[in-house]
Design a protein that fits this description.
Elements lengths: L3 H11 L6 E4 L2 E4 L3 E3 L4 H11 L9 H9 L2 E2 L3 H10 L2 H6 L7 E11 L2 E9 L1
Helix pairs in contact: 3-4
Pfam families: Integrase_H2C2 (PF17921)
Protein name: Integrase zinc-binding domain-containing protein
Organism: Dorcoceras hygrometricum
Length: 124
């Protein structure tokens, strides 16, 4: 069963109500020659196949969006991609936290007028 937005667009294109989409061989196309992907399992499969396989390398949001938008279009694609990448367990486990060195304390000792010796202990 097609999602309601997709079905409405198909009907509007068939009736000549909108021209920014078109039908070719029963498929709806939009924005250039990109196939319009209806809401449902196909979108999820495209997200998974573009992000998860070892050959894909778990791309970030920008790269994944570039890969998908070459051939496909759907409303809120960017939001879907961002959510998919953000919730990818492999990506979350792979992230390393980078901490700045923080100075814990410093000791300064005056040797003579205008001369100081300082020792700073930092961690990080």
């Amino acid at each position: 069963m097609l999602d309601q937005v997709y079905q409405k667009l198909l009907d509007q294109v068939r009736n000549g109500e909108i021209r920014k989409y078109w039908i070719d061989d029963g498929l709806l196309f939009a924005k250039g020659s990109r196939a319009y992907v209806p809401n449902g399992p196909l979108r999820k499969e495209l997200l998974r196949e573009t992000h998860d396989p070892q050959w894909a390398g778990h791309p970030g949001v920008a790269r994944m969006l570039a890969l998908l938008s070459r051939k496909y279009y759907w409303p809120k694609m960017e939001d879907n991609v961002e959510n998919y990448v953000r919730t990818c367990l492999v990506c979350q486990l792979d992230k390393t936290e980078r901490l700045k060195a923080v100075c814990l304390y410093g000791l300064h000792h005056r040797i003579s007028k205008g001369e100081w010796v300082g020792i700073h202990s930092c961690c990080g």
